[in-house]
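Design job #97: recover the sequence.
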């Protein structure tokens, strides 16, 4: 410690203004849903470009929330100033392709456990990108652990107090879906 520098400094905060944690400067509400949607689209493009070398194009929402045949869905939630879940949905053939690409393997050598781990990790990276963008904007949150659901004809159903958006993406002849669900705080 430098001589002459006090060990603790006393800072006086004005008492007239309430101190609000976890809120962007000047903000008193969670981020607008459109911002979270934009953060999600940006995070998908970034993760799929950096980790898989795929240039993802966002498609207009089509309302079709389920893939045909066997599916895998990775889910990671974010909780804090705003609360929601990022779901990455695709067919198992595409999931196997993405896993092989992520791990630098041939698709034929990729097993079901590897696919589950890879889809969980890709979903976690996308949700982490959303979280980083939220936190950088002053809306803090933490992530849940990833979960994986497998089956056929799967649909995510939400309750009335949740906003839901289907964000389809396309690259190299492949389509997959990111479903964003966010707790509605508009009343």
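Job complete. Output follows.
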């Amino acid at each position: 410690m430098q001589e002459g520098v006090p060990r603790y400094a006393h800072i006086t905060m004005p008492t007239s203004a309430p101190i609000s944690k976890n809120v962007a400067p000047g903000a008193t509400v969670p981020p607008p849903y459109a911002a979270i949607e934009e953060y999600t689209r940006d995070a998908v493009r970034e993760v799929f470009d950096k980790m898989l070398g795929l240039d993802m194009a966002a498609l207009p929402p089509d309302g079709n929330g389920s893939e045909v045949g066997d599916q895998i869905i990775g889910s990671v939630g974010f909780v804090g100033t705003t609360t929601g879940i990022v779901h990455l949905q695709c067919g198992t053939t595409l999931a196997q392709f993405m896993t092989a690409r992520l791990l630098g393997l041939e698709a034929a050598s990729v097993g079901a456990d590897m696919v589950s781990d890879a889809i969980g990790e890709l979903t976690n990276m996308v949700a982490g990108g959303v979280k980083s963008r939220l936190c950088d904007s002053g809306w803090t949150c933490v992530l849940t652990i990833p979960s994986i659901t497998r089956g056929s004809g799967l649909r995510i159903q939400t309750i009335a107090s949740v906003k839901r958006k289907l964000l389809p993406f396309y690259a190299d002849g492949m389509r997959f879906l990111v479903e964003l669900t966010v707790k509605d705080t508009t009343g």
